[in-house]
DNA sequence: TCAAAAGTGTTTCACGTACACCCATGC
DNA sequence: GCATGGGTGTACGTGAAACACTTTTGA
């Protein structure tokens, strides 16, 4: 058995669509490039894969650098292979999307970027490379996933209220959902637990605080748009 | 703007899960390897990506070589990156699955394999590399996809009967489906057209022949397991 | 005319949807 | 006590599931 002959392979990178939710808005993390190509343009964070490194490790490395964050929920999205997608040469991108709570992270541009910032997904600037395409697919996937699997909790604080979860769903799905039917579906799914505590401070009734049920049972749910 | 420095990149290959359906059985196409590693073991067909080649082109090349077939339905599945997945060195695999009609193709082993054959998905041999994992994910994806999107037709002849389509669904989903409710859901979806012809030969009532409606309208469907 | 399988229709029931009411809190 | 928003209950209708009957064909 002979090892691979060292013929040339395409460059291999991961690109990350990092979603954050705060102030009732869904946002994406973007970098402003310091160097060509696409100098001074906004792009998704990413990094080249190092030998012996797994996609997930590369993602974690980027998230740690840009966000100072560990233990982030992420999922592989799709692999992009258009030969013209990077003007520097052939480059394959394996895209992941991640869900974080912006309140818990401190973004920092690092040496490779002029700036790093959260953008509301409804007011995106033009993106370099094929990153608009990647972002569009990620948003589509997130919307689909959230309707049948409990990923929404990743975007909220550990304790959250039902109205907060409801607002999150309406924001991400960009639609209105009957709050009473929504409540029932979520409760019936057994994915969340009522802590008995209440969110204080509001000048009207104090809503119950829930937490995510990590040992998720069989019950699923289905939020219809 | 400088081009990529030529540091070493992992090898990049595509692996294909080719599904076929005939004689009321779902099958997968496997190759028997002529060389190490995994000599004389069964594996999924695949090929290394050539520079300037897209995943889809590599897949087509494999399908053309192994099956003498063009115009095959295929879809990207997932990318696999375990550093230990190939004993010859670091190799990334982008997996695709394809749906073909075995009646229309002539499989040939080619120079790289001892043999090539269809295996019933319920009686798979042990597979080399991480190909069992890839196969499992592909079957899961196919099962999920077929419940809401018209991919089943890719596995049948151009003209097919309702009982044939029904049998296909029961086989792939490995469950029984009420034939009358199934018929209604498919008809209501507008994905198929009654040609007016009938399948001759059977010694009982001759079923209507349908064809796939390529200009698919908005109506979807949902086959529940 | 009989068996086997395909085409068509109907009843039933569960779930999703729409909607109304009561409760808690701060001013 | 009043405005605001959160928690709970219920009637209704649509659509999926369960099921029966008729039709067509070859032997």
UniProtKB/TrEMBL annotation, chains A, B:
CDD domains for the chain: NUDIX_NadM_like
Keywords recorded for this protein, A-Z: Hydrolase
A Pfam match: NUDIX
Gene3D superfamilies: Nucleoside Triphosphate Pyrophosphohydrolase, Winged helix-like DNA-binding domain superfamily/Winged helix DNA-binding domain
Gene Ontology MF term list: hydrolase activity
Signal peptide location: none
InterPro entries in UniProt: NUDIX_hydrolase-like_dom_sf, NUDIX_hydrolase_dom, WH-like_DNA-bd_sf, WH_DNA-bd_sf, WHD_NrtR
Domain NrtR DNA-binding winged helix: 152-212
TM segment ranges: none
Regions annotated as coiled coil: none
Every Nudix hydrolase domain range: 12-135
Superkingdom of the organism of origin: Bacteria
Annotated protein name in UniProt: NUDIX hydrolase
Organism expressing this protein natively: Chitinophaga agri
Lineage: Bacteria, Pseudomonadati, Bacteroidota, Chitinophagia, Chitinophagales
